[in-house]
Amino acid sequence: LEDQGERFQLGFHGSVIWQRDKQFGTPWSNHIRQEDLDLAHHLVQILEPFYEFTLQISNGASAQVAEVVVLIDQITASLSTVIANNNDIYPPALQNACRAGICLTNKYYLLTDCSPIYRIAMVLHPSFKDEYFKLAKWPWSWINEALALTREMFDKWYKPRKSDPNVIPPQKVPAKPQTGVLAGLRAAAVARSVDSLSNPVDIWLSGGLVLQDGAPINGLKWWVEQKHLGNTHHGLLQMALDILSCPGEFHIILHVSFGRVIHADYSWFLYSNNCRCRAYLQIRPRLCVHQETQPQCKVSK
User: Fold this and answer.
1) Could you read off the pLDDT of 182-193 as tens digits, one per residue?
2) How wide is the angle at C-alpha 211 spanned by C-alphas 269 and 207, nearest 5°?
3) Relative orientation angle of helices 237-244 and 65-84, to the nearest 10 degrees
4) Measured between alpha carbons, how far is 244 from 65 in angstroms, rounded to an integer?
5) Spatial CA neighbour of 279 closest among 194, 139, 178, 156
């Protein structure tokens, strides 16, 4: 009887508290619990790169095209870490939100894939070239296409014109034949001239990467300095200045509510005021630019 009385008293006391909260307080379902605070803490960590990239783009007035792919890769890596959840520290609600974020970044990847300018800008960036694609484990077909697009643009718009065959070169007096070590200079000069006639893109890719304290440099500023030094890089200078000075901006606004994206606003801008850039965008038209296709989410559950 004593046990029943104690249980009745506890039940009555709990009923009074429930009635009081229902009448004067907020429902228990709306109370903030510790797991809600943990979710908010993890969400802040995930959204931190978005904030940093927004500041980076805003301070520079506009994002250069070579930086767009890198920013998307970093965002994708951050979201993929949460989805993998190797340390089992992220709640399922946050994983679901990151899966939705991966779908959104895949759409931006589709837009960059539809525009050759982005891949050409990566190839002409002194800190990236084709090495970035290899480190990011891009398929070889994508890498080869990026290099082919770069060569195609150079050959069509920037390759120096051949000299007029009708022009008769001035006659030169036969040089005195050389002997010994000097005789090998002529063969070396011919070999160097043959190398200089090879594709400038291949010569550019054969060089090393330009980094500052292990971090990428400002590619456009580097090419401007090369112009002041008089180094045209076998004709790639003007092409690099035209491409890297073409800004591209992207804006992502995610509205997340307890593990699900309730609304997503996004916009994409690719400015090509330069006449050569605008003309090249018309060379290889892609239908996917005008289609609202939904990319597949390639993530592991």
Assistant:
1) 455 455 555 544
2) 95
3) 60
4) 7
5) 156
Q: Kindly indicate the confidence band of residue 17, based on its pLDDT and cuts at 50, 70 and 90.
A: low
pLDDT digits (tens, 9 = 90+) for 244-287: 887 654 444 334 444 443 343 433 344 434 434 333 333 333 32
Helix axes 116-124, 140-153, angle to 10 degrees: 90
Residues 236, 204 contacting (CB under 8 angstroms): yes
What mean pLDDT is predicted for residues 172-179? 54
Q: Are 259 and 99 spatial neighbours (Cβ–Cβ below 8 Å)?
A: no
Helices (H), 164-301: 183-196, 200-206, 219-229, 237-244, 275-281
pTM of the model: 0.60
* Angstrom distances, CA of residue 231 to CA of 219, 223, 226, 227: 15, 9, 5, 6
Does the pLDDT at position 164 exceed 80? no
Q: Judge contact between 219 and 66, C-beta under 8 A.
A: yes
91 within 8 A of 47, measured Cβ to Cβ = no
